[in-house]
Structure formats: structure tokens, C-alpha cells
Amino acid sequence: MLPEFRIFGPGISNVVPLEQLFVRKGVEKISNSQKIKEIKENHSHDGSWLTYHAKSLQAYQSADSVNEKKHSLKASQVMTAPVVTLVAREAAAKALNILGQGRFRHIPILSAQGHLIGMISDRDIYRCKCGTGTACLSCGKDKHNVLVEQVMQDKVLTASVDTDARHIARLFVEQRVGAMPVVEGDTLVGIVTRSDILQAVMLNLDLDVWK
């Protein structure tokens, strides 16, 4: 199975373990074995009660398993494709023009060889102060001479096509991620945005994105 998350950048393609991405909950979930142990300790005097609740626990586990299979969505099912991209050596002003049309706020950046190496957002452009006048207020260059690669974020977190969309939704909230490219192998095939997640929830009203 392909890794769920990877970081891409110039010369970078690193797998990121799932547990490193999420904020650890303050209270750990009680394991099933702990639940059984507590039932045994608290109700050892009543064997029939134990049998009934052990069976109930198994039933809930089975229902949860069926529910997860039924309602989980993969990144490939919610992503936007094809993706508008830019090449790293293009003018940042071109990115500003595309982003200014208001259809989206993030553009994946490719190398000359077509490899994903970064991401640029409207915030990156305005942080560089290339958004007003003819010159970049940050470096003084004509803003058409400022390149995408000078402004972009050069480490971008990606999902695989099989990544659970609920994991992506959680990262959007916990890590304040605005959009996430989707790759198949080393090839960019789509992008998931907050709007895509919202639409998925609207079309699947019983989808539990926080599971």
C-alpha cells in the first residue's frame, strides 16, 4: 500500500508517519481489553451479565467496522482534478493573476521535469508584497522578475489517492492546512481543498469526518 502522507520539495520525497501529524489527545481511548477487564472486575459476581455485555461489545465493534467501511471516503473521491499548476521558474505575477480570479487559493508548483516541488498561495504572494504596483515592495524588483520559486513554500504535505479523507479533514483543522495535493506514486493527480471536504460532507450527510 502507498504511504498515506509524504512531503515533497526540491529533491525531497519523504514519508510522514500518521502519528507524527496529529495532535495527541489528552485522554487516550480505553482499549477493548481494558473494557473487558473492567466488566470482569465490576461484575464478576454475575456471569450472565458479563456474557451479555461482552456480546454487546462485540456487536458494537462489528457495527463500527461496517460503518467505517461504508462511510469512509478516499482522497481520490473528493479531490479536484485536473489541477492548475505552475512551473517554478515562471513569474510570481502569473500566479497572482491566476489566484486573483478567485476560483482557488493554492497552486501546486512543478519542476521543469514535472515533479511536485512546492505550493504557492495568495498569502505567499502578498507576504512577498508582489501584489501591488509594478515593483515588489519586499525586494524592489519588477514584480514580473520575481519567480515562483522565490515565493513558494518548498515543502508541501501530500496525500496518496487512497488516503482516508477524514485524515485530511482533521489536518486542515489541527495543522491549519489550507489545501493538500494528491499524488499517485510521484505523479500529481489532484488536490483536496477545504471546499472539497465541505462538499463531501454535504453529499454524504452521515459521513463522520472526525472518526
Quick take:
The protein has 9 helices and 8 strands.
Description:
This protein is an alpha/beta fold and 211 residues long. It folds into two domains: 5-15 and 74-203, CBS-domain (Roll); 32-71. The chain has nine helices and eight strands. A five-stranded mixed beta sheet has the order 2-1-6-7-8. Strands 3-4-5 form a three-stranded mixed beta sheet. It is globular and about 50 Å long. The two termini are 21 Å apart.
Largest sheet: 5 strands, mixed
> What overall geometry do the principal axes of the alpha carbons give?
globular
Please indicate the percent range of residues in DSSP E strands (runs of 2 or more): 15-25%
Rg, nearest Å: 23 Å
Strand order of the largest sheet: 2-1-6-7-8
What is the first-to-last residue Cα distance? 21 Å
Compressed to H and E, one letter per element, the order equals EEHHHHEHEEHHEHEEH
Estimated structural class: alpha/beta
The CATH topology of the largest domain is CBS-domain
Mean pLDDT reading: 77
Full CATH superfamily name of the largest domain: CBS-domain
Number of strands: 8
Name given to the CATH architecture of the largest domain? Roll
Overall number of structural domains: 2
Separate helix tally = 9
